[in-house]
Amino acid sequence: MRKRKAALVLLCSVTLAAGLLAGCGSDTGGKKSAKTDKKTDDLSKHVDLTLGGIGMTDSDSIDGWPTEVVEKLEKKFNVTLKEKQYDNESLNLDLSGGTTTDIVMINDDHISGVLKGKHAVNLEEYKDTLAKNIFSDNMEFRNKIMQTYKSDGDNKQFFVTPRVTFGDTTANYGTVLNNGYVVRWDLYKQIGCPEIDNDDDYIDALKAMKEIYPETEDGLPVYAMSAYNDSQLHTYFYKGCLAEGFINLEGGIYVQNAQTNELYPDIYDVDNPEVLTPFWSGVKFYNNLYKEGLLDPDCFITKTEDLNEKYTKGQYLGGNVNWHYGKYNDNQRALDSETLKEYVTLPAKLGWANEKNLAGWFGKYFFVSSHSPNVDRAVMVLDYLQSEEFSRDVDSGVEGRWEKGEDGKPDLTEDTISMKTDGSRLDEWKKAGIGTLGDTCGEDYYNIASDGGRIDLWFEDDVLPKSMTFAEKDMCQTLELNLPSDTLKKKVEAGTSIDLGNCLNAIQMGMETTPKDIVRIDSNCEEITMNAIPNLVQAKTDEEFESAKADLMKELEGAGVKDSVKWWSDGWESAKKGIEELRK
Amino acid sequence: MPKTARTVRRPKKQYKLLLLVLPFMLIVLLFNYVPIFGWIYSVYDYVPGLPIFDCDFVGLEYFKMIFRDANVLRTLKNTAIFAAISIILTPLPMIFAILLNEVKSGPMRKFVQTFTTLPNFISWVIIFSLAFALFSTDGLLTSLMGKAGLIGAGKSILSSKKSVYWFQTFLAQWKTLGWNSIIYLAAIAGIDQEQYEAARVDGAGYFRCALHVTLPAMMETYVVLFILNIGNFLNTGYEQYMLFKNSVTAPNIEVLDLYVYRIGLENMDYSYGVAISIVKSVVSIALVAIANLAAKRIRGNTVI
C-alpha cells in the first residue's frame, strides 16, 4: 500500500514537471532557413505561407477568411496563406529568434535591426525571374528610394512599400470627405448652412447647433467635441494640420507644409513665430471651445472607444474625422432610412485627399524573411501583392464582381454595388474580401490599370453617387452639388482649400534612422507637452494661455528640444535634396 | 538517540515532499532567476533583431543616464508616495479579518468574504470602465457628489491631479482587501478557542478578546507580510496607473514601473529599461535586508 502511494506521488510529480517543461520546448515555428541559389518558379509543392505585420489582423479573426481574393492567390501559388498580427514586442521577439513570418511588414523602428541582423532577402536577386512586378518601370522611383535610403549601404533592395501612386494618376475626392469640419447635417441645415472657412466660423456654427439641440432625446448632455487621449498628441496636431495645411510626421512633433514641403517643429515654434503650426492651432481651437463652454468636460480622460460611444449616443455635434462617428449614422438609418440625422464632413483648409504616394505609404515596409523555409515562394507571393491584378482584386473584388463592358472598360456589377449596402448580404460581402488586405497592395487606389479602369473601381465617377445615403443626397440637393466631396472641390478651385497634390511625402523616407538620444528627447518632449495640455486648453484668458505656453517652451528647452530641432532640420534638408534629385 | 523504525522512515518522507515542491521551484527558477541573464542587455546598446553580442558595448552608460534623468526622480517620488500610503494601510486587511471573524452568522460571513474577495479577480481594464461610468463628469457618483456639493460642476475625480494619490489607493484597497485578509483569517482559524473561553471567563468582551487574543496571535503573520511589503516598496505595478493615466493626472500617477514600461517597451529603449529595473531590484533587496534586520532587533526573529 505504501509502495503504491509512493509510486503515485512520484508519478504525479513527474507528470507535473513534464507538463511544465513541455511549454519550454521549441515550437514548430523554429524554422531553419532553406536558402536556395536556384530562383525557381516551381509550384508543384504545396506550402504554408505566413504574412505578418504591425497593425495587421490575424486571419483567424477575419470573417470570411480565406476570402475570394485569398483563395485566388492560394490557388495561383499553391499555398495556404495565413495572416498574423504583430505588435512591437512580439515582432522584436520573433526577429531575435529568427522566427518571423515568411513575409513581414515593419515600420522605421525596425529597419536597422532587420538590416544589421540580415533578416531580409535581397530582392534584386529575383529581379529578372520572380520579382517582375516589384521591379516594373512604374515602381522605379520607389525602388530607388528603397535602394538608397532603406538599404545596407550597398544599394541592394530589401523592402517594398504598398500603395504606390503612379505618375499619371489623377485622383478624385471620393463620395464623401473623411477629414474636415464634421457637423450634424439636420442641425446644420436648420441653422442655415453657414459658410465654414476657418475654426472661428466652425465654433460659431457649433454654438448655434448647440442652442437648438442642448441635449439628446434621452436627456444626455450634448457637447461640440471632445479629444481622444489614447493617441498621444494626435487629437491636437491632426486638427491643426487640417486647419493650417500641413501633414504630420510620426508623433506630430514635426510637421511638413503640404504646399512647400518645408519641415517645421510643431510644438517648439520659437524659431518660426510667423507660422501658426498645427499643434498650436489645434490647442487654441480646443481652448476656444472650452471658453465657449462647448468642450466635453471629460475631454482629458476620454479614450477612442469612449468617444465612439458618445458619438453613438448623439452627444457630440462636431469632430474632425469620420471614423469616430460610432454607430450613430447606422442606427439612425436603421430607424428611418430617410433620416437627415447624420454626421457629415465639410472641408477644412486641407482636404486630406489626392495624396501622391510616389514611393508608397510611409512607415510600411514589406520584406521576405531570410529565415523562411520557402523563400522563392514568398518572393513570388510578395511580387504578386505588388501587382495590378492583386490590387484590383482587393479593392474591387475578383473578376466576376466587376466585368468589362462593351467598350472594354471595367465596371463594378450592380450586384456588387448593392451587396455593399445590403445588410442581409453581410456574410457574402465579407467572403468577397473587398477591402481586406488593403494595406498590402502595391498599387494605389486611383492608379489607372492596363484595362483603362481605376484599380479601385469604387472611385469611378459613375459609381461615386451610387453609395450616397439619403442625408448625403439631401446635402447635395441643398448645397447644389453632385457629391458631398464637391464641397472640397469647389474650395480648391476657389483657392480657399488645398489638397495633397503638391505634397512630397516621400521625403520622410529619405530621413536617416533617428538616433536613440534624439528619440529619447522627442519622447520626453511629447510627454512634457501632454502634461501641459490641461493648462493650455483650460486657460481662461489669452494671457493665461501665453503664460502656459511660455512655461512649456522653457520645459522643452530643459529637455534638450534644441538638439532635436537641429537634427531634424538638418536631416530634412538633406533628405529633401536627395529625394528631389532622385525624382529628376 | 537509538534508531527506531520511525527515524529510519523520515528521510524517505522528506524526499517525497521535495519532489512535490520541485515543479514550483522550477517555475520560480524559470520566471524569476533565468530572466536575470537579461541583465546583460543593460551594458549593450541592444537593437532588436541583432544578436546581443553584435550590439555596441556601452558599459555603465545607461546606469549613469538614470542619475541624469529627471523623470526617474519624479516617478520615484510618486512610487514612494503610493508605497508609503500602502504600508500605512497594511493593518487594514488584518482589521477587516478581525471584524469579519466577529460576524457570527455563517452564511453572512461567507457572503461578505466572497463579495470582498471577488474584486481581486476583476481585471483593471474592467475596473477602469466601471470607474469611468461612475466617476466621469456625467458619471452616476459624480452627479450625486455634485448634488451633495462635494464636487464642482464639470469636474471629475478621474481628471483631478490632487485626487490621484488617495483615489488610486482607494481603488487598490477595494480590489485587494478581501484577498489580503484571507491569510489573516487563516491565522485566526488557528487560534486555540480555549484562549477565548478563558478571556470571557475573565470578563473580556468582543473588543478585549480581539485586542488581547486575536491581535497578538496575528502579529507574526503581520510582521512577515510587512517585511515582504517593504521589499515590494518599488514594485507598485503599472497596469492600474497606465489605465488611469491622462494628461491631467500624468505628473502624479506615473510610477517607476510605468515609466520603465513606457521607455522600455513603448519607446523600445530596452537597454535603459533593464538598467532601471536592475537598480530597482538591488534597492528592493536592500530594503528587505534592512527590514529583516529591524525585525530581528525588535522582535528577536527574522523572516529570511
TrEMBL record, chain A:
The keyword Signal applies. Keywords: Signal. The keyword Signal applies. PROSITE patterns: PROKAR_LIPOPROTEIN. Residues 1-22 form the signal peptide. This is Lipoprotein LipO. It comes from Blautia liquoris.
UniProtKB/TrEMBL annotation, chain B:
Pfam families: BPD_transp_1. GO terms for cellular component: plasma membrane. It comes from the Bacteria. It is a multi-pass membrane protein. InterPro entries: MetI-like, MetI-like_sf, UgpAE/MalFG_permease. PROSITE patterns: ABC_TM1 (PS50928). One of its GO terms (biological process) is transmembrane transport. Residues 76-291 form the ABC transmembrane type-1 domain. The chain crosses the membrane at residues 20-41, 80-100, 121-145, 165-188, 209-234, 270-295. It is found in: Cell membrane. Keywords: Cell membrane, Membrane, Transmembrane, Transmembrane helix, Transport. Belongs to the binding-protein-dependent transport system permease family. PANTHER family: BLL4140 PROTEIN. This is Sugar ABC transporter permease. It comes from Blautia liquoris.
